[in-house]
Structures are given as C-alpha cells and as structure tokens.
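Possible race condition, two jobs.
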Amino acid sequence: MIEPHAPAPPGTTPPWAGPARLPVRPGTGRFLVLTCVFVCASCGLVYELQLVAFATYLIGDSVTQASVVLSVMVFAMGIGSLAAKRLRWRAAAAFGAVEAALALVGGCSAMALYAVFAWTGDWGGLWASGPRCLLVAFSLAIGLLIGAEVPLLMELIQRIRRQDAGGAVADLFAADYVGALVGGLAFPFLLLPLLGQLTGALLTGTVNLIAGGALVLGLFGRDLTRRARWFLLLTNVAVFAVLATAAVLVDAFERAARHAVYGQDVRVALQSDVQEIVLTGGTDGRPLDLFLDGRLRVSGRDEYRYHEALVHPAMNGPHTRVLILGGGDGLAAREVLRYEGVHRVDIVEIDEEVVRLARRDPALARLNGHVYGDPRVHVRTADAFHWLRGAPPATYDVVIADLPDPGITASTKLYSQEFYGLARQTLADGGRLAVHAGPVASRPRVFWTVDTTMRAAGLRTAPYRVGGRDSGFAAGPDRSAGASRAPHDWGFVLAAPGERPALRLDPAGPWPRTMTQATLAADARAAARGRVEGLPASTLVHPRY
C-alpha cells in the first residue's frame, strides 16, 4: 500500500508537486493536457445526454428524466471534486485510473440500461424499481468520475508550468466548455443518427480511454512508478477489450434485447430521425403491432375499435375536406375514406418513415386498406403544431388529432390551448375537431384537462369513452412494450366552435363494426360520470399533463 507524502512546511512546494519530467517541451505538454481536457469534456457530456435520451425513450416524460439525471450528475460532480483533493499527490496515476473507470462505466451504461429494461419488463412504477435505480446509479457514478477530473487535471497542468491560479482555471475551463459544446452537438447530429445509442456510447468510451491513457502513459509516464505504469497499461487494455467485445456483439445483443421486449415476431426495427419504429406480426395469421419508441401505437387485434371511435362521430356532418394530424399509419384515413363525399384528406405526419412503412409494408398497407394509393390522400411531413401555424384558415370540415398520448412530454404542446386555438382556425363553418385524449378510468385528470383546454380555446366539447375489458379490449395506443396490463378504455373529445357538437353517427354513412348510436350515448354518459371539475387549462408555458 502506498502512503501519501507528509505535508510540506508552509510556504514550500510539496515534493509530489514538483515539475513533471516530460518528454516534450512545457508548451507542448500544456497543449496536450488542454487537448485531453477538451476530449474528456466532450465524452462526459455525451454520457450525460445519452442517459437522458435513453431514459426518455424508455420511460417517457423527458422533463423529469432530464431533471433527475442532470441534478444527480451535477451533485455527484461536486462530491467527486472534493474526493479528488486527496489524490493530488499521485495526480497522473489517479487521472489515468479515473479515465479508465469512466470509459468503462460510461461506455457500457447504455447496454446495461437496455438489458435491464429488456429482461425485467416495464419501467413503470416507483423510483425504487430496479431499472430506475440503475439509471440513478449510473448518473451518480459518471458524475463522481467527471467531477474528479478537474482537480487532477489542474494539478497536472500546474506541474508542467506554474502559473497564477486564475489563469490556470481560465485555460482549463475554456477547453472544458468548448469540448462540452462539441460533445453536445456531436450526440444528436452525429452519434445518435449514424451509430445509435449503444454503439455511440461504446465509441465514446473508447475515445475517452485512449485520450486519458495516452496522456498519462505518454506524457507523464516518467513520473509513474514501474508498478503504476503496468497497472494502468493492463487496466486500459482490459477496458479496451471489454468495449471492443461489446462493440462486436452489439448487433446480436440488440436483436436479443428487442426480442425480449417485443417478442419473437419482430419483422421491422429501425431508428428514424424522430423515433424507434418496430413492427411485429402481420404474417401467418399473427396480428400486427406497431411500436413507436417502445410504446404500442397500433394493435391489429383491436385497432379498428380505436379508429372507428375517433373518426366516425366526427364525420356526422359536412366532410368534403378532412385534416388528420398524426395518423401516418393510414388507419384513421381508412375510416375517413369509407364515407362518400370526401374529396381530399390531408395527413400531417412528423415521421416520414412511418408513412413509408404504411405505404410499402405489406401487412400494414393491407391493414390500412392501401389508402396511400388513393389520389385523394395527400401527405405532408411536418410537426403538426408548426404546420397549423401556416395552415389556411376555415378550410377543413373535419380535423382529427390522432396523436400520441398527452402524458408523453414530447406531445404536451399538441394538447395545449395554443394548439387547439390553431386547429380551431382551420375549421370551416360547421366543422368538427376529434381528439384522442388518453384513458379515462386510469388517468381522469389528464383526460379532463384535455377537455378543459379545448374549451379554453373557444371550443364546445362532447367527451366520450370507448372500451373496457368486457368489450374485448386488448391493448391501446401508448401502452409500453412489455407492460403487464392495458388501459381499460380510450377517451375522446369531439369539439366544435359555436354550438356543442351532436355526438351522433351519420345515419347515411357507413356504420362502425362495434359502435351504435345507443352505445355511443352510453359511452358519453359513462365518461361524464367521472368528470373532474376545476382543472386549469394546459398551455405552452404552463403544461398540466
């Protein structure tokens, strides 16, 4: 065991803080240290962002996940900085060990989190659940190691050439902050789209390992004992072997984990610029399921119940021009096109890959009735909120919002008062707006907040619900993959400016397979019995979901 050196007398330089024996000139040595600071800062921010992104994809509620991950990491960085003070007497060896540990923990964090998610089931429940505890543990460990870097690097740069503390801090943090900028931009624009979460994290760990190892063994190697050099060399080789092996096996691991999450019927799995898209089943008599970011958006067992309930009440009235917000799978458009008199259907879908699959995947195209081959259907790839800001006013007889659940943070703006105000402007005289508002029984406050928000935007509403286990309801949109149970119902709101819309089916139109006028009235009464009063409207600056 190596004991620390005794404290130096006041006013003298401790023996372990003397000038470093460098193989290069001091100016070159300082440049190499600052370059290492730049690289390590980039890697550190990538670790933070990939934890936030992974938690958001698998858990949802990006605001909560980002707050938890970042606050835990910043707290841990402070603790790590304090702990590193005791390691300054062996700053080079300690920095090498910290970088090897950070490369291993940060590089493997994405695979570990995905493995726990895949093989333990849903992430729902309390923060005490295993996967969420693991997320916090990784945030804590990575934060501790990142926090330990700065004091050690400060000691190393001062050992090259002594300068005033203010100047050294300025140099160090300048390189650190510029590196953080590069890492922050590289993650969403380079690593994530080109390599994905798993490979991107492994590559980041490898770069981190090489930078730290090269600096310590190459620049400060003469200050290390023979035992410390061999220890760091073998540690770096072992960590590199782990990361390289994981990189070789990452595709097989991802396939196995995907099968654990979605079952053995995975036919299509791709990462678009917007989300992860997975199609299962759809062949040999197996029902087709469409998952977006791990959430079930379409279940071939009962999707017709959802889409009929969303579309048919809104079609009772003029329906020459119809706007569908979301609905890139084409299933809402299928129900719209069953009505005579429909001249044009505009679909605004943010993810062109969903539309491509709805056109070309045989099972999904068969399920949607090949609607994209109908000349009346026109697709625009855009964010629904931003598209509505430039939409022509008083154009559509029917607007259908077939959007992700309001409980998902990325969808919050699509259930805001501002959004409904924009949708209201696109409605022609006598027009109707139909919205999927989430389950009524399990999330009544969310459902009735949607209703309140629509009324705050100047719409009159008619809420209703459909489903229930006794109705043969199997699974609904936005149910997490692997979740143990489905919601008991779907909740909808039909709205119109001016008079309250009549919640009726078009007597001259095609009748739904599972809905009648009597059942629709009963569904409206069932929803009304659970009304929650006094809820505030949700806005962009004050979201309520």
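Job #2 (started ~2 s after job #1):
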Amino acid sequence: MRRILRDLGLTAALAMIACPQSALAQAGGNDAAVIAELRRQLEEMRQRLEQLEARAAARPVATPTPTRRATPRAAPTPPPAPPAATAQADARAAAAEARAAAAEARAARQALAAETAPIPGLDPPERMGDYYATEEALRPDLPGVAFRVPGTETQVRLYGFAKLTGYYDFGPRNQTDAPPPQTIPLIGSPADEQGGDFAMTARFSRFGIDTRTLTAWGTLETRIEGDFGGGAPNTTNAVFRLRQAWAELGDDSFRVLVGQANSLWNEGVFETLIDATNLNQSFVRQAQIRATGRLADNLTGMVSIEAPETTYTSVAGVFTPTTSMQGGASPAFNSVPDLLGRLTWRQNGLEFNLRGLLRQIEIRTAGTSASPSVSETAPAWGFAGMMRFPMRMLWEGFGPDELAVMAYYGDGIGRYFAGQTFGQDAVTNLGLPGVTSPSLDTIATYGATAAYRRFWAPTLRSNVAFSYSRNDFPSYALGFTPGSPAALALNREYQQVFANLIWSPFGEIRDGVFNAGWLDLGVEYLFTRRDVYGGSLATGAAGDGYAIANRILFAAIARF
C-alpha cells in the first residue's frame, strides 16, 4: 500500500511539474508568481501524501476468521477515491488554471502592443540636431524618452542633457562661461593685468518636450525647450530661459511652423564644447512664421518672416529698441519683420545650402533725448553659403571624416552674427559735433570658416576649425570718444581657432553616419584675437587696441 501511494504521489508530482511548465513555456515564460503558487500546491500535496502513508503504516493488520455462510445484505457504498487520485485531480486543475492565466497574459500583451504600435504616417521623433542648420553643433543625438499615449494618435518625447563645463583662461581674466569674441579684454587693460582664472558651470543643461499627433492635415508637432542660461555668468543661481516654443503642421512635402524657433539663418558649421556664440556661427532663436517645402528629390526650400531688432552704434553707445537713452526711449525702431529664405540639398552626407535675408534698419529720434530730430531707414541684406563634404567620397579610408566650409557677405546683418559685432547692424553720426543732417549707414561684414572633423575611432573624434571675419565702418566712427563703449564696440577684424578631442564611449558609426550615444567627455582649446577699429587711438587708456585670449576647457554631457 505504501509503495502504491508513493508511486501515485510521484505521478501526481510529475503531472504538476510537466503541465504548468508546458503552459508557461507556451506563454513565453510568463509569470514567476504562477510558478511559485504551483510549487506551494505541490508541497502541500506531498505533505498530505506523507500523512496518508504514515496513517496506513500505523493501521493494525486484520486477523483471518473462519469462513462461514454470509447473510445476504445490501451492496456496500463505494469507498471514497484514493488520496493519490485526488492529488492528480488537483494537479490537473492547477495546470488548467496556469494555462488560462498564461493565455490572459498573452492576450494582454498583444492588446498593449496594438495600442502603442507606431501609427502609419506618424513618424518617430526625429533625433535632435541631425543637421547643423537647425541645431547647435552641440546636439543630443538620442531620440529621448519617447512613448505613444495609449488610445490616441499622439507620440510624446522627453529629451535633453545635463552638462558640466569647466575652463581656464591663460590670458586676460574673462569672467564669462560663454564668451563671445567681442568681449575679450584688451591687452593692457586691468583684466589683462590680473591674468586668467578658473571656473565651472552647469547652467546650460537643457530639457525639452516634443509631441507629434497625426491629423487630417498631416503631422502636428509641438516643442517647448529651455535651459538655465538666463542668469549671470558663473553663478550657481541659474535662471531658466525659454529657447524654443513652436508648433508645426504638415508633411514632408509642405509644412508650416509658428512660434519661437531657430532662425533660418542659423549655422553651427562645426562641433564645439563651449557654450558661446563663436565667430561666424549664428544661434539666433526668435518668433517667426515659417514654411518648408520639398522642391525636388533631396532639395528643400524654406522661407520665414521673423521678429526684427534694429541695433545701431552712435557716439552715445550701442542701442536696441529696448535700450534707454538717458532715461528715455531709444531711437532704434522696428517697423517691418525680417524676411529670410534657405535652400538645402543633401544626399549621402553631402550637403550644400544657400541662405539669404532682407531687413530694414530704422532710427527715429522724435520723443527721445537725441538731437537733432531725424527719421532714417536703411535697407539691409545678406547671403551665405555652406558645404559639408564627406571625405569618404575621395577615399573610403577616411571613414566618416568630413570637411565643412562656410562664407558670407552682407550689409546690416550684425544681429545674426552676435559673436563678432555686439549684434550691431549700423552706425550713425547722430550726436557728433557739427552734424546737422545725421546719416544711418549699415555695416558691411564678411567672413569665412573652414573646419575638419576627424574620427580617430568610432568613439573618439576631433574638430579643428579656423574662422576669419571683418567689419567695415564709415570713417566718421573714428570720431567716437576713445575708450568709450561706442569706440570699443567697433571691432574691425577677428581670427579664431578651435581644436578639441571628444570621447563618446557609446558612440557608433553605421553606414557612414555617426551617433554619439548618450555620453560625451571632451577637452577643447580656443584661441581668439580681435582688433578694434582705429587701434590704440580708439581704445585710449582702455587697452592697446587689440585682444588675445587662450582658453582651455573640459565638458561632460549626459543626454537622455
């Protein structure tokens, strides 16, 4: 009897193990909780079998009695089912429950996948900064944390990066973590005598929210983005600032954008670690209405109407529409928006683009402290071209290396090159002695940049760049008071050199295209020289008429 019970118990145990595991295997290794429950039930049945065996062993063996004629009686009631049979039935029931649970879990997974699957026509979020034309050279390449809102046709993405930058100046003490070239202290100035110093900042860390929704008119994309660069340089009390806030509706053939976004004039040209607006780079973000259309294969056209801002320099200083003149209103005036256009052709990493702008510069002295009374306008225009050339087109051994060159020319386009002109568009002889009929003269500016991006390994790269820029001023600007803000703002020539080494431990190159991954660690060297119009005659005691800066910095960028 004990051997029979043990054999039946073993049979029940094997049935308990085989059936549920088979069901779970069919469900794809579904649920650890179900396995734990079956093991618990198996352990209870084993203990029950042991109790039955012990009870059977303790029962006394019956003594045979002499046979005698039995008295006829009613048939006995069938005995209850053996304990082993009950165990087998319990095991079969548990296995059936496990199979049902696995089926329910499988159905739930299928329903969730169907609910969150990409919708045809709703593209996944584009990687930030696929092209230098629309994002800074420092760009997060990851798609961010993206998910579809269940039950809707909307996709949401959270993206950004945390960034730490530290720097040391070998030359003049330049106390800003984002130094545009025109702020370099002059040789012979007090800042030059003090020498360089060291600082660190994390205020340019960035985050944004991007949504995409499929509509009857195409894909509606919205974006809100900001960082903490709105405060004073080198402060830990960083101030949040809005970078972008826009909505765009349409498809690849035609779409319209409204809101604050990168200007069509923007061009990063090459990859840097510093957070400044460098020489010949443009990182203007402003309110605009933009239309984008596909003109042909690989050819995109864009036009925009963008917010204007007149900036001019007179003997009294540098003025914008919001600058106060002696406690009153500013003569700088805006009356019409800026008009910009851009053509871009791309194929297999080769890129050509041409961009241009038209605008109006205006001053009105009525109602201000400026004298004499005058109302003047001046047309402004500019154009620029850029080529990005993948070196593998010459020889496959170059890998993903690339060469970038950019050149521009314009009159009155200073605000789009804030790095070299304090954003100024024009100068005027308003306020100079003996001037009774003031003139407004746009500043002619031109320059060029050449940069090379070298990949030493898929995770290690360098960028080397040289930039040159020149601004031409009317001769009466030499009459500005030496050492005054007006005279020091007139920079005639600039030269700038960049060299960096960036390690992206999770970077990879696929089909000639580089993706940096989520982490960048790098060092960078920056040399800048500026020469003031008029030299030491214009700077006076403020310095020797030129400035030279040597800065080395390191940065760590962690994206999400």
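The CA atoms of residues 92 and 148 lie 41 Å apart.
Logs attached separately.
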